[in-house]
Amino acid sequence: MVSFGLHSKPNHSFEIKEATVQDLQLAFQRNQLTSRQLVEFYTGEIRRLNPLLRAVIEVNPDALHQADKADRERKAKAPSSLAALHGIPILLKDNIATKDKMNTTAASLALLGSVVPLDADVVSKLRKAGAIILGKTSLSEWSHFRDDIAPSGWCARTGHLTTMPLSASNLMSVLPVVQESSRSHPDKTLPMCRTVADAAYVLDAIAGLDYHDKATIEASKYIPRGGYKQFLNIDGLKGKRLGLFRDQFSNFDQGSVFAKTFERHFSTLRQRGAVLAMTMKEKTKEYGQKHFLDAEATKGIGKKEKEAILKLAKMSRDGFEKLMREHKLDALLSPSSSTSFILARGQYPGIIVPAGYDTVGLPFGLCFGGLKGTEPTLIEIAYAFEQATKIRKPPSFKH
């Protein structure tokens, strides 16, 4: 275990493994930690665990150089060193383009050795924020997009990795409105972090205009002045109306770990000031599924495809949006990621937060979804829930 004593609290230890962005920045300020030490620790963990997990495809050969640059800037008290992500290592999926010494292959050998023309917009923003691009992570080849027959989790560059949905990853993630972060890379960009606060810091760095993507101009109106970290509110559940799909939560066997856990969470939400509407049936999940499938089966944009897109928009207005407005909901709750496809296809924001562990220790989550532009409200809700429950535990790995 790598730990550093905090000068103001001699009996307290600082452990890198579970440190948040705020913890790391405090350690930087107190000269207890350098970005070089941080990168060396994480690359050591990758060497130790990657033979088991196959999660990281490659480490950036320039990561230590970037770390040294961050340390120099911090020592010189450069204005850029005050940014929340300055000197913080970040991993990127292998389908996010980086114009550097790393590959961008979408987990396919077909693109190995190809050179991208420029950084994806999200990478440019992360670099500007002072983040260290540590490496590229594995994913299903071509994001499991080109071939439904290929097994999920198959990566041509690393082999088959243990596949699980985001809600079972023991992490939390923000699914922002799709155009808030640029589409000038081949996949939706979403932060995956240990805490809601860390995800808010990343979202602050990557949200904004991309002049290569005109759609971000319209979506930029949803980005709050002052960023997202201002909504990390410990009392963020007070007065919030939360809707639950009754069918989804009642499907669990009474007495099961899932049923007991969610009942405890409902009690916590009420105690923290939230109002739960538990009478809705799961009709929203059905409202656009056929049209989603029809749209995904198309090849190119023709008359039929345009009609499908218009029908999807109408179904969104008459389904999810109507449900949210009629019940005056701030967010819709669902177990794990059971409604995430609705949010993703309809371009609605959502946050998945760790909610518990099953009988064999597999994590499961709780998803808070909302209408476009409600990321601030969802962050308030998710942060307050996270702080009230403190569910997440450090993962353990058995070799």
Would you give an account of this structure?
36% of the residues lie in helices and 17% in strands. The chain has 399 residues and is an alpha+beta fold. The protein folds into 2 domains: 14-163, Amidase signature (AS) enzymes; 164-296 and 306-394, Amidase signature (AS) domain (Amidase signature (AS) enzymes, Alpha-Beta Complex), CATH 3.90.1300.10. Strands 9-8-13-14-12-10-11 form a 7-stranded mixed sheet, with helices on both faces. Strand 4, helix 4 (121-128) and strand 5 form a beta-alpha-beta unit. Helix 2 runs antiparallel to helix 3 (63-75). Mean pLDDT is 83; it is low at 1-12 and 178-187.
- The tally of beta strands, per DSSP, is 14
> Which spans of ≥5 residues are poorly predicted at pLDDT below 50?
1-12, 178-187
Judged by helices, strands and strand pairing, the structural class is alpha+beta
Percent of residues in β-strands: 15-25%
Helix content: 25-40%
End-to-end distance: 17 Å
The gross shape turns out to be: globular
In short:
It comes from Hibiscus sabdariffa (roselle). The chain contains 13 helices and 14 strands.
SSE diagram, text form:
Elements (H helix, E strand, L loop, with lengths): L2 E4 L2 E7 L5 H9 L5 H19 L2 E4 L3 H13 L13 E5 L27 H8 L3 E6 L16 E2 L3 E2 L11 E4 L16 E2 L2 H11 L8 H5 L21 E5 H5 L6 H15 L3 E6 L3 H4 L1 H8 L6 H24 L4 E5 L4 H7 L3 E8 L5 E7 L5 H15 L10
Parallel strand pairs: 4-5, 10-11, 10-12
Antiparallel strand pairs: 1-2, 3-5, 6-7, 8-9, 8-13, 12-14, 13-14
Descriptive keywords:
single chain; 399 residues; alpha+beta; Amidase signature (AS) enzymes; 2 domains; 7-stranded mixed β-sheet; 3-stranded mixed β-sheet; 13 helices; 14 strands; globular; disordered N terminus; Amidase domain-containing protein; Amidase_dom; AS_sf
